[in-house]
Each structure stands twice: as C-alpha cells, then as structure tokens.
Amino acid sequence: MLLVIDVGNTNIVLGVFDGKDLLDHWRISTDRLRTTDEYGVLIRNLFNFNEVNADQIDAIIISSVVPPVMPTLERMCQRYFGVMPLIIGPGVKTGMDIKYDNPREVGADRIVNAVGAYAKYGGPLIIIDFGTATTFCAVSAGGDYLGGAIAPGIGISTEALVQRTAKLPRIEVVTTERVICRNTVQSMQAGVFFGFVGQVEGVVGEMKKELGGKAKVVATGGLSVIIAPAAKSIDVVEPMLTLEGLRVIYDRNH
Ligand SMILES: Nc1ncnc2c1ncn2[C@@H]1O[C@H](COP(=O)(O)OP(=O)(O)OP(=O)(O)O)[C@@H](O)[C@H]1O
Ligand SMILES: CC(C)(CO)[C@@H](O)C(=O)NCCC(=O)O
Ligand SMILES: [K+]
Active site at which residues (predicted)? Predict the structure, then answer.
C-alpha cells in the first residue's frame, strides 16, 4: 500500500492508497518543532485508530512546500515505516512540462494538483487551491503547466484583519446571504465571503481570457466547499485532489 503525504504551511494531509482506492485520509497540523518520533507515533496511531495496517505500507511519496520539516519527515519514514520516500522535486517524473521561468520555484502542491486534475479531466484547466494561500494554476489543452497566480489565503487574510484592529473579533468563514449587514460579525462574514467569491470570479475571468477561451475550473483545499457553491466559475470541487495527484505521480515513477 502507498502512503501519500502533502506538507502544507498549515496542515499535513496524509492518505493511504490500495491501488487506485483511497482507503483513508487524515489531517494533522504542520509543526516545525515536532520531532521524528512525535511524527512517527502520531501517524502510526492514526493508522491503528482507522484499522489500516501500518506494516503494509511499502511505499511513500511526499510533496512539501515547507522545506524545514523535510529532514524530520524523511527520518520518520525510514524509522517508522522502513521506507525511503519519493519526494516531489527535480528528477521526479510528473509527466507535465513546467513553463515557469524557473521550474524549481513552483510549489510542489501546485504541480501535484495540476497533474491530478489533468489526469482526471484533461485540459485546458484552471485549478484553485484554497489553502494557506489561494493559488490559481493554468494547464494547457496539451497538459503543460502554464503558471498562475498566488493570493493571500482566506484564513490568513481574516486573521490579519482581526490582529490589526481593536474592535473586530475572530469570525468563522461561512456562506452568507446578504451583504448589507447590521452587526460586526455578519459584516465581516459577508465581506470575507463575497470578497473571496468575487476574487475567484475575477481571477478566473482574466485567466480564461489569457488562455483564449474556455477552461474547466477545479477547486480544492479546506475552504473550497464554502466558496465553490457561490462561485459560478467553479465547475467541480475535488477535496482529495492533492492526494490523487501524488498517487498518479508515484505510478509514473514505478
Ligand atoms: N471555516 C473557517 N473559518 C475561518 N478560518 C478557517 C476556516 N477553515 C479554515 N480556516 C483557516 O484557513 C487557513 C487554511 O486552512 P485550510 O484547512 O484550508 O488549509 P490547508 O488546505 O490545509 O492549507 P495548506 O495546504 O496550505 O496547509 C488556516 O489558517 C485555517 O485555520
Ligand atoms: C503558494 C504556496 C504557499 C501554496 O501552498 C506554495 O505553493 C509555495 O510555497 N509555492 C512556491 C512559490 C510558487 O509556487 O511560485
Ligand atoms: K492542501
């Protein structure tokens, strides 16, 4: 069985595949201070809890946009699973031509999402990931990674609003109905919700123009389920896109 791991700036998402079937998945916070042993015990415990047999893991693939946690995670894979992980980076076959000025600069999560989405839908595509940052990526009809746009994420933008003001409280990001609001919490929720829905429509609109027409729009990431129903430009939500992309890339390298 294959263990796939995506290390983001906020969360590490893990999944176990038996062939093409995702048996289970987990989300733990990314903590640079956690040790090899702490990650090992935590991850093996998740397995026990969900009745996945950790001893059946014979391969691991990792994508990461947080370099400082990688030495710890690599040691964890060796010590707790007896496996040398395949790490997304130069030399790994993704099957996708990266048109960035410097292909090494693109976040591994963005490439993995693009590979996963192209394998399922073909191109042209626009992929939106609502994580710590909101990323927009464009893939051509022929499957080239064309580049994209990076915006501050919904969570960190909202946190900044709370931190830099005296009277604005912490809020939950939720779907709102109206935008003329008569209390602080609802006003903030409406501003965040309609603001980020508008951002999606705006950026996708510009991207489609640059792509020269139509593109399928796929959304993923923690907050996609809140934003997508209101964003007309989003065609599908794929919550497990990154895990799926990791499995596809693993298969291309074996
Ligand atoms: N409903 C919500 N209301 C407010 N903040 C939220 C909500 N859901 C998530 N967040 C915050 O948004 C940020 C991104 O969370 P999310 O779960 O989308 O991350 P992620 O997809 O794991 O990101 P990454 O892959 O970059 O680690 C976090 O700071 C999180 O605390
Ligand atoms: C934009 C994030 C933080 C999203 O996780 C990540 O993909 C990243 O660190 N990317 C590197 C810069 C780039 O993709 O151009
Ligand atoms: K993610």
Answer: 109
109 classed as catalytic:
yes
Q: What angle do CA 126, 121, 27 make, to 5 degrees?
A: 75
Choose among 235, 44, 202: nearest CA to 121: 235
Residue 245 located in a structural domain: no
Q: How confident is the model at residue 222 (pLDDT cuts 50, 70, 90)?
A: confident
Q: What is the ipTM of this complex?
A: 0.91
8 Cα nearest atom in ligand 2: 5
Mutate to test the pocket of ligand 2, among 70, 99, 109 (most ligand atoms within 8 A of CB): 109
pLDDT at 144: 98
Atom 22 in ligand 1: which residue has the minimum CA distance? 11
Using alpha carbons only, give the angle 98, 108, 197 rounded to the nearest 5 degrees. 95
Rg (Cα) of the chain, in Å, rounded? 19
Q: Are residues 74 and 137 in the same domain?
A: no
| Residues 137 and 234 both lie in one domain | yes
pLDDT tens digits, one per residue of 120-166 = 999 999 999 999 999 999 999 999 999 999 999 999 999 999 999 99
Q: Give the number of the atom of ligand 1 that is nearest the alpha carbon of residue 173.
A: 3
* pLDDT at site 241: 98
Domain encompassing residue 21: 2-87
User: Of the residues 21, 37, 97, 109, which is catalytic?
Assistant: 109
- The three-class DSSP label of residue 13 is strand
pLDDT of residue 125: 98
In a domain, 203, yes or no: yes
Nearest to 88 by CA among 121, 110, 57: 110
Question: Which residues are annotated as part of the binding site?
Answer: 6-13, 100, 107-110, 129, 132, 184
Instruction: Please tell me whether residues 130 and 213 are part of one structural domain.
Output: yes
